[in-house]
Amino acid sequence: MPLSDKFLPDDLLAAVRTIKSAASEAAPSPGVWARYAVFYGAVFVVGALVGHLLQRFGVMSSASADGWKMATTLLTIVTGFMITTMLFTGKVEAAKSLNSVQIERFTRKSNHLLFSQWITLINHIASLLGVAVILAIGDTQLALSYWIVCGVVGLFFLSFLRSMLIPIQIIELHRFVHAALLREKQDEEGSKTIT
């Protein structure tokens, strides 16, 4: 029995096992995590650079509490939408009519989308925590808050990009189910004899 099993609560252990399993299912090709890290790392760096430029030109600062509170409200709404989407992703009524091969493919696809949505949710929460730090520090520690603002803008860029993927993921899931339903109806119609 691993040492972590002795000291960690069961719900945390179950969460870790679920994440490990979902991560292995979400990596359909070799090198997927390296591509994720490089691409999303580059998006974060671009966002942080934009945050640097916006502060440099006086467009934003850590002292603009109203703007950061507005960002918090928006992120909270998007985070709630993300949780609702995650609940919706695995529950598609039409999936009940799929055969075993189709349901296996549907399950892999929906598990992949759920893991992707979980990563997006983590990004939204990290953005919220970053804004909370900015609001807590304000302009009391200008050098630190300057760089935190850069990082938070980088997280905003990631949140925006990943949020734009959500509707596409929903479309992808529905297209899969619709194609399966269409094949099922075509098979039913093909098996009927015309008299």
Give a verbal description of the structure:
By secondary structure, the protein is mostly helical. It is 82% helix and 0% strand. It is built from six helices and no strands. The protein has helices at 3-7, 10-25, 32-56, 65-89, 100-137, 142-191. Helix 3 (32-56) packs across helix 6 and helix 4 packs antiparallel against helix 5. The N and C termini lie far apart (67 Å). The model has no long low-confidence stretch (mean pLDDT 84).
Offer a few descriptive terms.
mainly alpha, 6 helices, 195 residues
Q: Topology as H/E string?
A: HHHHHH
Cα-atom radius of gyration = 22 Å
Counting helices, strands and paired strands, the structural category is mainly alpha
The total count of helices amounts to 6
Distance between the termini: 67 Å
Largest sheet: none
How many DSSP-defined strands? 0
Strand content: under 5%
Low confidence ranges: none
What portion of residues is helical?
over 70%
Q: Assembly state here?
A: single chain
Shape assignment: elongated
What is the topology?
Blueprint: H1 3-7, H2 10-25, H3 32-56, H4 65-89, H5 100-137, H6 142-191
Brief summary of the model shown:
The chain is built from six helices and no strands.
